[in-house]
Amino acid sequence: MEFDVERCEITSIFIENIPLIKLSDFMKYFRSLQSLTVKTCRLSFLPELIGSFKFLEVLDLEGNNLKTIPKSISSLTSLKFLNLRNNKLERIPYSIGLISSLISLNLENNNLTELPRSIGYLSSLTVLIAKGNNLRKIPSSIGTLKTLKLLNLSSNKIINLPQSIGLLSSLEYLNLDNNKLIEIPDSINSITSLKTLRLDENEISSPPKSIELLRSLEMLSICWNKLEKFSVSIESLVMLKKLLLTSNKLTKLDKSLCLLSSLEFLDVSSNKLRNLPEEIGNLKSLKVLKLSDNRMKKLPDSICSLTALEILNLSGNKIGSLPESLGTLRSLEELLLSGTKLKYLPKSMRKLKSLKKLNLNNTRIISIPQAILYIQSLKEISWNSCNIETIFDYPILSKKFVVERKSKLFSHQKISSKDTPLNFENINTIFDFPKFSNKLSVEQKGVLPSSIFTPRK
Question: Which of 14, 139, 225, 266 is least surrounded, with the fewest CB atoms within 10 Å of its CB?
Fold first, then answer.
């Protein structure tokens, strides 16, 4: 509890994890209460006297068993934050619209099937969260919430949105993930303040029309939908940094995507892409490119122009070779190639001075080139389920070995069938290559014969 020292009155009460059926009548004596938290207390009933707290600014009732809220809540004329998350609410009283001071309303994870029309009267509301309910529609009055900045309606059963949603002139974050939306109303493009738009796990077959009008948009996610193409004039989205189109039915990427000068993150994994446009190299700000589980057989040479690229995921494609100029990707830290048809690595790999992780699992690679030894930043390399014949130009008989690089020690260990390690310490070179600092772990799981290397004759 907190006290007002001058008036000797309680201003804050916090109760958590204490079983309560209802709030005791003694609460009526705390007329000066400003903050009331009754969290995960199994509370199933909220008395009408709750409306008598004229100075209450924070009411947190998260994690209880409430099914209804009394109408008297409208008398909380100072209330700014109302948290009703993780209850069993089936409806919200119409009178809630009279709390004009309310800034944040959290209704996440309840049993609501609708929101009252009066919600549009909450003239000070900036945050509205109704995630994880059974909402099928949204009242058109929502468009009157001119101060709303965050709207989360994910994990409901919403089929369509009212055109009035385009009137949310201050909205910056809109989450509509995991609903039953087939399309997005054109009016959404009037929300020029919008920075994040999430539309994952719906039934959308085409992107919102005139999406290029969302000039403040920084993040757009339309994953797990039914997109067959994404060909819209989006070059004016100069602020867009993150674009996620995972798990759709895309067969190609439109050239217009390559005009997104600020794009840093592009995920088009799990589609039906057969190739990339040559213009992909124009994405000079791109740091993460995820192309896994598509149908690509080769990459355009222009991909090597992505000098800011840090993560490149090509796993699960039919790629048989990498561009010889791959070494120009000096910022690359992770190169994921598992499940491809790759047979060899380009010699320019040695120039990847920032590479930390290399995944070659389940590829057709039969040789690990000496160039790998020159990548001093490399910490992890794996080639499980590969038929490696030579490593660093030496034939290999074992299917598991570990090379560790530590400060002034470069040792390799043989893991025999009895798991007895053999260490070679205090050596200056290995296979005619100097020792390096840091740590490199190389592991190939499988049968463990008694010897590891057979030097060339």
Answer: 14
**pLDDT for 125-165, tens place per residue?**
999 999 999 999 999 999 999 999 999 999 999 999 999 99
> Do 82 and 102 form a contact (C-beta atoms < 8 A)?
yes
How many contiguous H segments (helices) and E segments (strands) does the chain have?
0, 26
pLDDT in tens, 382-438: 989 988 877 765 554 444 444 443 333 233 322 222 333 333 333 333 344 443 433
Radius of gyration for the alpha carbons in the chain, expressed in angstroms and rounded: 30
Burial 185-194 (b: 16+ CB within 10 A, else e): bebbbbbebb
| Torsion region of 392: left, alpha or beta (phi above 0 gives left; psi -120 to 50 gives alpha) | left
The 10 Å Cβ neighbour count of residue 117 is 13
The CA distance from 2 to 37, in Å, is 12
pTM for the whole thing? 0.85
Q: Classify residue 352 by burial, with Cβ atoms within 10 Å: 0-12, 13-18, 19+.
A: buried
Res. 262: pLDDT tops 60? yes
How far apart CA 51 and CA 158 sit, in angstroms, is 32
The rounded percent of the chain whose pLDDT value lies above 90 is 68
Three-state DSSP state, 75 = helix
| Long-range contacts at 199-208 (CB < 8 A, ≥ 24 apart) | 199/225, 200/224, 200/225, 200/244, 201/177, 201/225, 202/176, 202/177, 202/178, 207/232, 208/183, 208/184
> Largest alpha-carbon pair distance within the chain?
94
pLDDT of 374 strictly over 50: yes
Q: How far apart are CA 413 and CA 110, in angstroms?
A: 56
